[in-house]
Structure to design on (1380 residues):
């Protein structure tokens, strides 16, 4: 497969590079970066010296479309919606890591992203690439809306219990915690080392653009429309997301019963690991890998279920999940090129 | 005032030292450390060289009691209950930073601490040293049970709304996040740098010994007995606690109304700072200081209130609050010796 | 004393604030910040809420000069040289934390700072504020050139052995290591959390502007003009500088003899602490304090002396040393307002 | 190839696991851990769940020797010397990551390791596995002494200039800086998070056991016996080593000339990357990879050369280099299984 990456010099872009360089079927034909075009990749990121030598280019759609089978967009929101339609017309498959094609309702996009939406036609065409749930749709897709980092951790953690109607959909509270790489490479006081190190910050409470994405899928899968409480926190580490989720149980289930349900639900899904009772996931245990680890505590005292879900935000929350979608879309084993052990410690 | 610290070489002990060295009325008469006795303080902690030169001693109650006015216990749970009664008989005031005298119900202590309780007589005598709430009791106290770190951040964040009956007591969920100094100086794999750095871990979900302490005060202050959901997470930083709290509003109140309520409630309380709308507390903004900063988001979409509360776990969550109690108990201004700006960045 | 701080919102500026708020004789009359003028200090730095409420102002020299006794400049290089002369004419004493008045030779400034120098007249007037060496000059000064962070750690570590002619001046190699706050608050890729955390970088090798400052003082104090090798490294922590220094011994001296020499040299200097044999300084042991800790290893195998010196770059390397100079210049005890224990852990 | 790892649960052991799981020719037959035997690997290290499920075993040499081709020892010093001889007699090749077979002179081992040495016969048999220098010997070896982490970074940085006699061997000073994983997984106050984070420490100055290892190879390769000054520092990060090295040039060479020499010397060596002028290596640029990056500054002012060399201590400084040696010893391409991009950010 010949592949182009648009937005190759952001953190998701270089993680796609790291993973695809290890992928036996992928040929990196074009690395596109408007901000860094006509530079060598290794000039922008010296760690790629001797690993991948390539010139960064500006986007020339007809030229790229002629040579590649798949385009990844690792661009900020508001970019891919302008280029995806043309690629699709050329018959090139698109995997979009931004939020541009995730929300089916254009008004919702406009409200939460404060920007004009992609066309309804293309929103309809887009398949939400949470392949543990939508594998069959992904197989047939020409356009993948790769899920956001928080929604990935959240939805993998909530859906089995919600679909089984074991938890009340209107009781869901998600306390999200992310490493700083989630904010991307743009410099700001909020990601300055001296302001971030030895510091824990809450941010965007109740206004994060991942809220409608989570609610859309919860609605689709449960049949019930509910609003979630969703908070986000910036943790002084580079990689990793943890979502601690709280929901009222319809009736009491033991932690063991919950674990059994999840194990059954994710049977055959290679990237979801269900933790045994009293073992809580940690972000380092999934670092630089495509795993999502999930642990549980059902509390008889309160009638609530606590679910803890962790991913590496740059891998399962972005580039790794995109490669997983590539594999499924192209008829390969989902694990191709992703068969990597977490890096520990 | 002549003062003894029992457990002077733990992290709470040395923070007491740092603060009391800056206190105009305190004279550090005895530094007790059974594990390090007969060593110089500066041998165990070289940062005290030239700041405080003192021999660490074993505990000889009659001798100490003769010379001091107040004893601080900065000991692990299960220690102070054995020594406090004798000091009280000598007429020495005691401030206990451990959990030994916080729970009024001995059975609760035995259940959550897995240890035998202090006597009911002394439990009754103990005043819970959350002086923003119990200032008058603290003034009269001979024995202070200094609040735990998580309960301090939690209770200061919840009590105004709960006492006003604006939130439902049975809907309370507390997502706690702590720096690693909260685990003390004892070495373990769980606090090893290589296992903790670049890692975020959930721990003790639903079983943390601070749960009954929080519930006891919520019960006392609201008149309603409810159980809370309480989760704890270890964040890769040394100091700081953040509690993100969720509760259902009885009826809608705007964020502004909430802020007004809290400003009024904490009027004249020098260590609580209420953040303006859309400004979220961060742990660094209270680092090495006795402040508790609190921010709010009232969400009309869900009918829930989110409260974010931060403290430095070693100061307001331990030694600083203990000095604040000392001041009030001894008739001094609560700010004496605590008039320190946060250390930033 | 009435005091103005020009550049109050940089990291050195806010550390001056923290220290002067704790100073019994200092009255903060003016906080000047051109970039943030007409904002409340607590708007820019919320950690000052309730600690210091003050409006940030633009610099109006005649107005400020009328009301204050001393002006601190906590500005980037190239700023203070424009304003100091006028303040001096008004009879206002100036303490400059930038490099503008440190180098006696204007050509040297122009070469290393790539900027035009202050006038020779004022360069001559300026006293280099390393008060452990130049205390008498500081007492008489109207203009203090407060030493750079690396030079402070380096010179305190080297001068006793060099003045005694125990080490060869042309053999000196300084391996400097700094926390990220040394780079200031300006945002850049080089100080972005995700690029700095879990990373150790060398920078400005052989071209750091602190090189001529170090060489000037070594020359003055030893009578011999030599060039030093000086390397700098960025360490993933916020505060702290360590300089590891290497020099050939003229003839063998034991570590114990070296320690004795330094103890004698720094007798009565409250902020220099000489470490015992086999005890190596660490940056945390001086954190948030004005101490400089120094340790030694004399190696009979190589005939070389290794000296390790640590300071908090924001305190002894900037604001703390500036307050120390203020005290000495104004006839106060050098420790006034600086009597703070390091913050540990 | 069937492979056993003795000491599979230390940090070098699990990194061997991570790399060998990605190696197309390696079959992990035995994971030996005396301290954790009869536990599942994923119980000790949950990040291996679903990646590698295997029982940890005690060492039974005859049984292991019958089934494997190569044994890796990732054990503390003093262990492998007891087991290697028997494996060699069985005809099993051994790669020892500890220091037991690195020093040719048994007395030197005894002096620096404070322990009895391996037999002279086996010391003689051992090939020092710095394969960029000793590739031909590695090809023929039955026992590899895998180099230490600091010596790897140091020797790759020094040898080209030293062998060319461009630098004076008796002028060499090495300032080493390491992440905390280098101290292994054993818990201690010195690696406790709260004591290590936001802290920079010097340690083992002049007494590190890597000193004789470095001197031995410098002697062999230059023909001149000299002592080096070698200092080590603990940096608050998990992975990474940087060695900043200083040496007097015999006669002036420009940085460009130095770079040319090194590029030529390491031509065809896939894991050494020479940085262009004014580009300094950083540890993150080699993180989780087998690269060693080297940069230079030749200073006409002082006549000294500064060399900066970085590796990931757990990869090129331990497990990665061991796999590289395995490949060469077994006639495979040196890059087999090591073709990994650094993990960034």
């Amino acid at each position: 497969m010949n592949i182009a990456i648009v937005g190759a010099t952001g953190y998701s872009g270089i993680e796609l590079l790291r993973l695809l360089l290890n992928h036996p079927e992928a040929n990196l034909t074009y690395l596109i970066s408007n901000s860094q075009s006509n530079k060598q990749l290794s000039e922008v990121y010296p760690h790629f010296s001797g690993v991948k030598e390539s010139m960064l280019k500006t986007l020339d759609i007809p030229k790229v479309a002629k040579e590649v089978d798949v385009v990844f967009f690792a661009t900020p929101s508001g970019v891919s919606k302008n280029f995806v339609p043309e690629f699709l017309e050329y018959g090139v498959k698109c995997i979009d890591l931004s939020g541009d094609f995730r929300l089916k309702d254009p008004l919702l996009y406009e409200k939460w992203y404060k920007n004009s939406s992609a066309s309804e036609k293309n929103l309809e065409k887009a398949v939400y690439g949470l392949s543990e749930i939508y594998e069959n749709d992904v197989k047939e897709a020409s356009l993948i809306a790769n899920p956001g980092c928080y929604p990935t951790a959240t939805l993998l953690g909530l859906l089995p219990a919600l679909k089984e109607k074991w938890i009340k959909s209107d009781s869901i509270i998600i306390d999200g915690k992310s490493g700083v790489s989630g904010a991307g490479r743009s410099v700001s006081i909020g990601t300055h080392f001296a302001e971030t190190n030895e510091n824990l910050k809450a941010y965007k409470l109740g206004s994060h653009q991942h809220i409608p994405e989570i609610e859309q899928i919860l609605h689709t899968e449960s049949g019930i429309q509910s609003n979630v409480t969703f908070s986000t926190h910036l943790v002084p580490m580079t990689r990793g997301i943890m979502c601690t989720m709280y929901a009222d149980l319809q009736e009491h289930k033991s932690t063991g019963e919950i674990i059994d349900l999840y194990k059954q639900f994710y049977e055959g899904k290679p990237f979801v690991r269900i933790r045994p009772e009293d073992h809580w996931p940690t972000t380092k245990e999934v670092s630089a890998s495509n795993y999502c680890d999930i642990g549980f505590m059902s509390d008889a005292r309160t009638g609530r279920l606590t679910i803890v879900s962790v991913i590496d935000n740059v891998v399962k929350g972005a580039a790794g999940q995109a490669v997983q979608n590539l594999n499924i879309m192209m008829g390969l084993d989902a694990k191709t090129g992703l068969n990597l052990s977490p890096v520990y410690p």
About this structure: Residues 79 and 100 of chain A are 8 Å apart (CA to CA). The mean pLDDT of chain A is 97. Residues 150-313 of chain A form a domain with the Dihydrodipicolinate Reductase; domain 2 fold (CATH 3.30.360.10). Chain A touches chain D through 39 residues (CB under 8 Å).
